[in-house]
Design a protein that fits this description.
By secondary structure, the chain is mostly helical. The chain is 66% helix and 0% strand.
Length: 98
């Protein structure tokens, strides 16, 4: 007969950190943070490159809207990253069947 350890692997060992890391990687908050970060960088670069264009400044009332929005999106992305690290996901323990 087989022993219990052969039929039911113990998940309290090295598998728990790997599954926790994978769950945190695909956490919706980290995906949103990545999107805000990428779009924030794009808008920040666009604001720096074309910030002095009088035509664009006239359209936005004299402000560099790409630069302002890019900085705002980077701040929001950083807040999401902070949220992920301060409140990580807690996975439910798998039910043990005896």
């Amino acid at each position: 007969m087989s022993s219990k350890s052969e039929n039911h692997p113990d998940h309290h060992g090295t598998d728990a950190p790997a599954s926790s890391t994978a769950a945190n990687l695909f956490d919706l908050r980290s995906v949103i943070a990545l999107l805000f970060g990428v779009y924030g960088i794009v808008l920040l670069v666009m604001g720096i490159v074309s910030g002095d264009d009088p035509e664009n400044l006239a359209k936005t009332g004299g402000t560099n809207l790409n630069l302002d929005t890019g900085i705002g999106m980077l701040v929001i992305g950083a807040l999401f990253v902070l949220w992920v690290y301060l409140r990580p996901l807690k996975l439910a323990a798998p039910e043990q069947q005896d």
